[in-house]
Structure formats: C-alpha cells, structure tokens
Write a structure and sequence with these properties.
This protein has three helices and six strands; from the N terminus they run E-E-E-E-H-E-H-E-H. It is α/β, with parallel strands linked by helices. It is globular and about 40 Å long.
C-alpha cells in the first residue's frame, strides 16, 4: 500500500479495529469498535460495535458500514485494505460483491494511517467527551 499523499481520495478505504482493549459495558458486556476510513484523507466514514464474542462484523453491519462510506462519496473505492490478522471474512465478502479489490497487509503498514484515530479514541475512552 502506498502512502496517503500518493492516493487520491476514495481510491482506498481501510477497515480496522479502533480500540485496543475491549470496550466494557455494564449491561451488555465487552465490544470491539470497527472503523472504515478513507486512506487518503483519513476521514472515518463510520464505526460499528461488535460483541467480543462475535469476533467480526455481521453481514448487516458490513453492508451498513460500506453504505455509510458510499453515501459520503457516491461510489465505492477501488481497494479495501485491512490488517492480515483482523477477522473480517463477512466484510470482505460484501466488499468483493461490490467489486472492491481486497488487500491484506501487516498491521504495522497501516500505522501511519490509523494511529491518530486509535490514539484519539483511547483518549476519549480515558477522559470522556
């Protein structure tokens, strides 16, 4: 994957887990937060909470997240990039149905794109709004 300066907006989107540690709720248990972001602008199109036990996005959540990106830019990207170890089979199947090419990369290759969002989310969790 190339650096964000070389990508045009909406050429590539990134799916990643926004949180480090699970998000704990008193009533419903632990969750992970998945985010969909434009690689060039680092704009986050949307997020979905997934129960830790569920491991990955459901088909409904996958469709909704892809539609949230499409509704912002009126098209799908050429490529979807995600970490190799991220459980996202359902999401990638939905992306492939829309004609989006999939690229799996090592997490460290995505850090320049996603680290600011992850740090901001962690700070929000620690300090509140």
């Amino acid at each position: 994957m190339t650096q964000s300066q070389q990508l045009a907006a909406d050429d590539a989107w990134i799916l990643f887990r926004l949180n480090g540690d699970p998000i704990l709720t008193e009533r419903d248990g632990a969750y992970n937060c998945f985010a969909l972001m434009d690689a060039a602008s680092c704009f986050i199109f949307g997020t979905e909470l997934v129960a830790v036990d569920a491991i990955q996005l459901s088909q409904f959540q996958s469709r909704r997240l892809l539609k949230s990106g499409r509704s912002r830019v009126n098209k799908y990207p050429k490529m979807l990039v995600l970490p190799k170890r991220l459980a996202a089979d359902t999401f990638t199947q939905e992306a492939l149905r829309q004609g989006i090419q999939i690229e799996r990369v090592l997490s460290k290759r995505l850090l320049s794109y996603i680290s600011e969002a992850k740090v901001g989310f962690r700070q929000y969790q620690e300090n509140g709004p």
